[in-house]
Amino acid sequence: MTDFETAFGRPSDGVWSAPGRVNLIGEHTDYNDGFVLPLALDRRTWVAAARTTEPGWTTVRSDREDQPVRFAASTVAPGQVAGWACYVAGVVWAFREAGLPVADTDLFIHGDVPVGAGLSSSASLECAVAVALAGLAEIPVEKTPFARIARRAENEFVGAPTGGMDQMAAMHGAPDRLVFLDTRTEAVELIPFDLATHDLALLVLDTRAPHQLVDGQYGERRHDCAEAAALLDVPSLRDATLDAVGALDDRRLRARARHVVTENARVLEVVDRLRGGRDPREIGPLLTASHESMRDDFAITVPHVDVAQETALAAGAHGARMTGGGFGGCVIALVEVADVDAVTRAVEAAYADRGWEPPVAFTAVASAGAGR
Ligand code: GLA
């Protein structure tokens, strides 16, 4: 018997899922109209769903929660659902706002994307619910519009002021591909990223340092970027030049803007190298430079993150950087397959020396986006 059958006493109409993501490079560029280069993870959120037998009620259950959450699909609005189920209710609301059909449903949620690790478990849940609603309504999935709907749920229903990278990665991800996204035009290009054929691995080190997007720091960075763009008289930092940024008087704003401008350039450089089919080892220094920029200019790293990044490099990684919103979360390292264990052990030892809980390590493989 499936979890859905145990919970609801009948089989589901189908199971849909969407992946978490790691961002290879392009951090805090998405809300500046810039470039990002994430990949869909081989860790997902699954939604088993069926039309309800109790009209007027959508019921959401999860294997992580004891109590179901209930709301009405036809009337649910921001502020009415709190906690974990707001990601689900938010998508139902955003579906309705987009003029798409929403019926009440029974949903059972299960997932293996670590929560609070900066791997976009929330976007994976949102996108899994979006494709489930589409499947039940028998309407076609359109990747970019669905990513917009999922992001609207996150921004306006959940209240997290994120950019659009995570939902686009969850919708557009593909096996052995990076999702190169121009967030201004929403153009997507899939870039080959088959590390195994080069005897390489992307090691993810979940530092388990606490990480929260709804708290103020993320919003403060967004605000700094908007202020810098206004001072530079450009629509967004995407349009700023390094020379113009260097002339900003305010030291903090100068550093924030410099991160965004140099990070956009690094994304384009990485794409250029990978597109040309060159050895992925060549992108290592760009990953490391991205970390230094996040640490020194954007000021979003924390000691757990910096120690993991420095230790991975010292233990032989070709490049390493924090991934995601910052203030904790995960570090990624580009390593020889043969060195995965040695790098992991080195970081564990560095953590043990400081009396910190060990990080959780796994290798990431670029995987499929949302679907049935
Ligand atoms: C979080 C947000 C994204 C993006 C990153 C930073 O993951 O959800 O939109 O801004 O932070 O690159």
UniProtKB/TrEMBL annotation:
Keyword Nucleotide-binding on entry: yes
Positions of the Galactokinase N-terminal domain: 3-51
Similarity-based family: Belongs to the GHMP kinase family. GalK subfamily.
Keyword hit for Metal-binding: no
Organism: Pseudonocardia xishanensis
Family matches, as NCBIfam families: gal_kin
Classification via SUPFAM superfamilies: GHMP Kinase, C-terminal domain (SSF55060), Ribosomal protein S5 domain 2-like (SSF54211)
Domain GHMP kinase C-terminal: 278-352
Protein's name in the database: Galactokinase
Residue ranges occupied by any GHMP kinase N-terminal domain in the UniProt entry: 87-173
Gene3D superfamilies: 3.30.230.10, GHMP kinase, C-terminal domain (3.30.70.890)
Keywords assigned by UniProt, alphabetized: ATP-binding, Carbohydrate metabolism, Galactose metabolism, Kinase, Nucleotide-binding, Transferase
Origin superkingdom: Bacteria
EC code: 2.7.1.6
